[in-house]
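DNA-binding transcriptional regulator, LysR family structure dump, as promised
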Amino acid sequence: MNLRDIDVFHAIMTSGGAGAAAALLDTSQPAISRSLAKLEAELGFSLFDRIRGRLVPTREALLFHAEVKANLVGLDRLKLRAAQIKEVGAGTIRVASLSALGHGLVPRAITAFSRKHPQVRISYQVRTSNVVRDLVASGSFDIGLAADEIDTNGVLYSVFTTPRAVCVMPLGHPLASRAVITPADLDDQGFLALAPEDTVRLAMDRIFAEHGVQPRILVETPYGVTIAILAAQGLGIGLVNPFIIADKMIQGIAVRPFEPAVHFRALLLRPPDGVNSGLVSDFMAELYAVRNAFGVAD
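structure tokens r here:
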């Protein structure tokens, strides 16, 4: 049964005749007549009696039209939903991020995106990189930002940013007078360290070993923001991702470059199906725009 023929029948029933239906559907009256004859042949019963040039609905037509109207309501809902999906995608964006980008960069991207798409709901979580990876790999989340030590099997990924690590310390720290911090400066210093599995921590351990340096590790944490806060409280010195302190939300710290250069590396993750809705593409564009606006050097 052709949907076009159903539309013709419905137009005749609602407009009162073949001529009015032709105008409503922007077609010719002979085309209306052909479609109606085809539908009646398929149904096996007459829909209209032809009385003095008018189409008068049969009892069967009235019964059939009641079913048609019920189904057209459902079809209208489908059309409306399709229009909504075209306009705003699935209506929800699910984003997960590692802590280093999750408290400054990503919230700014969320704000910019929400102002352009106020009708879209955003589900957002700040988790460890391994959890972010699992959320994206399972298809539970649309976009993830994670450190490069994760297992990238089962996800699509690209390098999002590779910022150079910086030293943070209390404003009154003895090393705050230095323009650049070197490994020798950190020997026997109270040190705020990243977790042992972190790639920057591993790189720092190699550098310290090569220079015969042994800082006094006071705290180990997977979160650079914790290191920055502890430094602001006067506890010690540590290396962090510069995106953590780029928006100056953490006060009371001095920031200095570290030589030799050590780089963080964050990946942008997508589920394995790799399908980007318009919303997902728009959100990723906001992430890149905010990244560029922060002006953090790689």
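The mean pLDDT is 89.
lmk if u need the other ones
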